[in-house]
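Many introductory courses stop at the sequence. We go one step further.
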Amino acid sequence: MKPNLLFLSFILFSISAAIFLIRRNLFIMLMALELGLNAAGLAAAHFALKNSKGEPLAWILFFFAVAAAEAAIGLALLMNISKKFKTLNADEIKELKG
């Protein structure tokens, strides 16, 4: 297996961490978090393919399914936040009481 896959996952994770720390829009932050999770899954896939065993690939499939469910829940929460506060800017949202 070429080390390009591991390098790609490192670059994707670095980009997602930078976006998450710099941008203040909650939607952009959620997408950066998803990119970071997928980069971690890509690194796990690299090591699973390097060892050529099938079990880690099943765990990676489960990992991506959980990441997709997390994205759906996160988007639902963002819709509710946007209706309540009329913004998705993290700096403008101060009140977190229900």
